[in-house]
Structures are given as structure tokens and as C-alpha cells.
Amino acid sequence: MSDAVSPLAQPFPAIPLIAGVTPRVARAGYKDWGRCDLTYVELAEGTAVAGVFTRNVCCSSEVELGRANVGQGRARALVVNAGNSNAFTGYRGREAVDAIMAQVAAHLGCPQEQVFVSSTGVIGVPLPKDKAEAGVRAALVAQPCGWQDAANTIGTTDTFAKGALATAIVDGRTVTLGAIIKGSGMIAPDMATMLGYIFTDCAVAPGFLQELLSAANTRTFSCITVDSDTSTSDTVLAFATGRAGNAELTGFDSPGADAFAAALGDVCMQLAHLVVRDGEGAQKFIAVEVTGAVSNESARKVGLAIANSPLVKTAIAGEDANWGRVVMAVGKAGEPADRDNLSIGFGGVWAARDGLPLGDYDEAPVAAHLKGREIEIQVDLGLGEGRATVWTCDLTHGYISINADYRS
Amino acid sequence: MSDAVSPLAQPFPAIPLIAGVTPRVARAGYKDWGRCDLTYVELAEGTAVAGVFTRNVCCSSEVELGRANVGQGRARALVVNAGNSNAFTGYRGREAVDAIMAQVAAHLGCPQEQVFVSSTGVIGVPLPKDKAEAGVRAALVAQPCGWQDAANTIGTTDTFAKGALATAIVDGRTVTLGAIIKGSGMIAPDMATMLGYIFTDCAVAPGFLQELLSAANTRTFSCITVDSDTSTSDTVLAFATGRAGNAELTGFDSPGADAFAAALGDVCMQLAHLVVRDGEGAQKFIAVEVTGAVSNESARKVGLAIANSPLVKTAIAGEDANWGRVVMAVGKAGEPADRDNLSIGFGGVWAARDGLPLGDYDEAPVAAHLKGREIEIQVDLGLGEGRATVWTCDLTHGYISINADYRS
User: Fold this and answer.
1) Complex ipTM, two decimals?
2) Distance between B306 CA and the closest CA of chain A, angstroms
């Protein structure tokens, strides 16, 4: 964890014990860190698993194996290595992951494909098998830890521990969803891959859990950006132990499925926002709300074009209501847009409508809004009913300092 | 022009008089600048014209009219306004452009569509018709000026005047190509739209000139990026007066066509590189050379993904041979790539080959290379014969200062 906590940080929630989920941490020593760097989470037998993974085609062995194994639907354990991403390490990297999976599977007496591994940290250095093995051995017998400890242990350049909590009433029982996440969109060797894990005691069939996670991903993790760069290791996994005792959710016709879906979506949104709030150098949290697009997906693409624009992000850093840069970003998105239907606003105040700057536009409330930490940009394309919200942070000297003012 | 000249600046070339081309400058007073801001270039009767324009769908009236009128193939005049981009100004902006075209057409006794207008500067403020009219009136009777004066007059946030020169032997005669350009990829109100103009005395049929300009554009202007943002007004126009007396070039079977095509490509490359050399805050000029792609277009897209990556650009600013970030950028490009075939190098020294970091990789020559002003990144995808080179600059504190540390 870095010394300077993000000004956008939020407190860690009081995540309770979740039946069937036991987190432990240990020190593998991947880096010279005076703290634990290996997280081991044991899951009850029969736990359902679902996952979403980076689309970066140069992904790590962990991602390849996770993507392949999530399909069989069951998980008994999660291992997260912090300090070494094991990405771009070829067959040697693959061997290290296989070794961890085999070690944990032997301990639990479960199939190897029910052990999920993630790694985050330096790229191009194969995960040292001896350190991993010793770390896992220590973790297997460590005392169970709290969720904040686990969140701190999966972290790398994160400036604060990130967790999310939600509950739902399903089949007459209260189910709990607790989650942790790390990262902010960067890649090793700066160690800020996004890794997120959601744990619930709700009973959910694996296929339905995957359906819900994929749907939530579309409007949460897929709608955030820090710097437009995509890690080779991004991973979000959801684990459902079923220990709450509800009748298993198998589809939207199961009682309580809607409530669970809403809680899962809520947790994903919390996690996604926390990642943006820890963006490198972030001083402002920006919501880009796009309406009037020809489709929701088109709205999302326009939102991402705005949220990824260095000129928009630096304008917000400068507290400048620079709607011209927003127009530019809309125009370069490659989506249907018509200059003469376009409206742009900040904090709910329109600066330009129907393609023309407003003559009576009052800059004072906009200027006040832009001085805050939470910024809203409104864009109405005036074409259809498609809408999406995308979240990002501003682009500041802090980003440059973190990413350029170092020597490896 | 800004006070601090880019460390990557190059001297203005000694562009001679070009037969049939007469540049003049005047002061329209669009901004409180103590210098000329309106450029007027008169072209001999029968001058051929070709153009390439921004793909930004929120483009200015100037771009819409230029794109529509370039098809008729002939030009008598060019007017460039600096200080007001006239973008996002609706019908009032359109009226101002129409008025300028009519005024010049009346003076020259030519069809209005043979007058080409560009504007660069603040967005969302209609170009003031009275200032434009007075500026044009002054320019029409001004003394002809040199090319460096014209280059300075079309500039806005540029830190140095940018020009290019080439000659070719066509049909036994020496033809000259002189060109000026301004900008670096930003948008108004920071006034750094890219506007480029190429003038030659060669006789070229309009259709063939367009074919050659479009082809050159694909490997020059379409292969540069400063910050991934796309102006609403980017324009490159080529004018051929035919006064060199050669037999008109109508296709590649015309004598000298190859020589002219090479000279035009050379000028476009010079201009494109000059724009990158004046990128906001640029301290290093970066060439990203991609080989082994499945096609040239795929190589170009991979190159742009690398050149637009904030993490790659900050790593170069930090003089860090961070090949992991290059791997990440390759992977996110959405083009065919295989981690295990990928090779990455800097300054001609491979850091990783066939998906693995080189064990005997000598960082010393790479470190020395990265301390220079001219940086090369080599990427071999190991898949096919496709290749492309893309040029960009590093991402520094200077970029943030220029784009965020101001108040409008």
C-alpha cells in the first residue's frame, strides 16, 4: 500500500463472516515488502463459481486457466499472489500456476481445476515456484483473517483497502455478499491489475451465477476506465457457497432471484467505483452520463470515448467546463452522433443544447460543481433511447509522477 | 506562438517561390494577438486540389464545405483563420464561411466552391463575420509574404513554424513542393487542430492528386498521434498549379508520376513528423515499428495502440525500457497477436523474444538509447508480413500543465 491515500478513498465496510468462506493470508516474499503478499480463501464443498476476465490477448497463464476452469462451475479455493503478475513468462509461468493448483488440490482432496489462482505484480518474471509453495504451505495452516486483511494483501500500488457489502432476502433467508478488489487499470511492473472477488453464502447454480455476473459486468466493470490501458491479468470471480440454506437459484423464475441479482449488481458497482477512486493521481471522480444514443451499447462507447480522452480528463483536472473537448470526444467515438442535436452539461446544467452553446448559460453553478470531488458530465445525443453511464477519474500531474517519475 | 520552443523543433526550410502560388497575411483580430491571424493564398487559374479531412463526426462547417467542394477538383484560393475554429457554431458558423468564400470569389471572379477555408482556435463561438471580412479585405491587397510568415500566421499554440520542401524531376522539369502545417492533435479552445497545406507547380490531374494524397495520408498523417484525441477540424489540402510546364500527370503511367508521388509522400511525412515534434509537452520523438502482423493495416492498429497508451508514453518519458507495458498495449489492440510469438525491442536491441524476456538482455545500450530525443520501439508479432511505423511523443508533466493548469 502506498503512503498517500487517494482523496477519493472510502472506508472499508464491516463485512461479516460469510458461511463457507475462510480467508487466510501469508508471506511468500515475492517482493521485499514487510507484509503478507499471498491470500488463500478456502471455500466449502459445492461452491459455485463464475468469472469475467481481461480481453487482452496477451493474458497471463492464470487468466487462461481461470477462463478454462470456470466453465466446470465449482470452486474449492482461491489463491492470489501479489508482487509478481507471472504475465509474459511462457511455460515457466504456467508451471508455477499448475504447482500451486496441485498443492492446494492435494491439501483439500479436490480436483485441481477447482483451485483458482490470480497473480498481480511485476511482468516477465516467472512466479518463483519455491516461494509460492512455501507461501501456500504457510497460508494453509494460518489463522483465518478478516476481510480488510485480505483486501490489503491482494493490493499492490493501491492506496486504500477496497471492499463492498450487500445483503438480500432470498427464499426467506438473508444472504450476504462480501467482496474485495484491488487495482486501478494499470499493468505490472507497476502492479495495478484489477482483481476482484465476490463471496456469498447464497445458493446459486453456476450457470445462473455466470449469467448474473456477466450482466453486472457489462454495466459496471466494463464501464470504468482510468487511462484506457487494459491489464493482461484483469479478473473478477464470484463464489457462492450455498450455506445460507435457500433453495438454489437457477434462473430469474427462482424466488428471490431478482433480489440477489440486484445485490450482486450493487456489489459490482461498488467495486468498480472503488477502482476508479484509486486511479493513479486521481483527484476527482467523474460520472459521464450519456443519453439519447441509438442504443445502450452505442451510449457506452461514446461514454468511454469521453472518459478516455486525455483532453477531457485534463480539463476536469483544471476545473474547466470545457464542453468543446466533450464535443470532440463524442465526434471521435465512431458512433452515430449529430453535431446539431448534441447537448452537453456539467452537474446538471446544460452548457450547450442542440448543437449550440447556450447564450444565457450561467457558468457560476458549473464552476462550483467542478471544484468538487464528484463530477458529472451529461451528454445527450438527441438520436434515440440508448443510455449508459461510464466512470473515470481526472488526469493529473500525479498520474505522470507515478508512471514516469521513477526508474525501474 | 508559445514562448517555450519544443526541444524537438526543426528549422524552417528555405521554401522558394512556387509558380502560381501567392501567400499573403493580414490581421483580422480574432484574438488579442499582436500578430497576423489570417492567411490568404491565391492560386493560378486551373490549379488542381485534393484534400483529406478529420473523421470526427462533429466536424466544422469549414470541413463539411471543403470535403464537398474538393470533388470538383479546382481551387483559386485558400483562407485560413487562426484564433477561432468556428466549430460547433451551427448555421451562424456556416454563414461566416459562406461570406468569406463569396468575398474572395467576387474578388477573383471565380466560382465560390473554388475558395477553400479553414479555421482553428476557440470552439463554439461563431467566426465574427465583420472581422473576417475586414481581414480578408486587407489580405487581398497585402504584399505577398514568405512561407515562414504564412506558417507562423496559421499557427496557434505551436511553438515553432513548420514547413517542408521537396523537389522531383517530372517530364524533364524540376517541380517544387512546398508545404506548411500547424497543430499537434489537440482541439480548440486550445487551438491545436492540425491544418496542413501542400503547394506545387507540378501539373497533376485532380483525381490523380487525390489518389496520391490519400495514399500518402494512410502512411503519414494517419500514423501519427499525440494524445489519441481527434480534432473536429483537421484538414490537409494539396494544390497543384501546373505552372512548371510538365505534361499533366494523370496516373502512374504518366512520365515522372513515380517521382512526384515520392516527393509528395516525402513532404507529407515531413509535415506529419513536425506535428508530433510539437506535441504538447513532448520531450521525446518516438517511432513505433511493428512487423510480423497479419496485414499492414493490422500493424498500423497495433502501432497506434502502443503509441496511444498513456502507460507506454509515460514509461518513455521516464526513460524506462518497460517492455511489459508494450506487451499490454499490443494485447489490448484487438488485433491478431500471440503472446508466445511476440518480440519487443528498444533502439534495435531486443528485450524480449518469442514471448520470453531475454536472459542475456543487455540493458546498457537500451538505457543509453532511451536517454536520447529520438526513441525507437520495435515490435515483431511473428505472425505474418504486415508492417507499419507509427510516430508519437512521450507523455510528460508538460502535457498536464498545458491542458489542465489553466483557467479559461
Assistant:
1) 0.86
2) 10
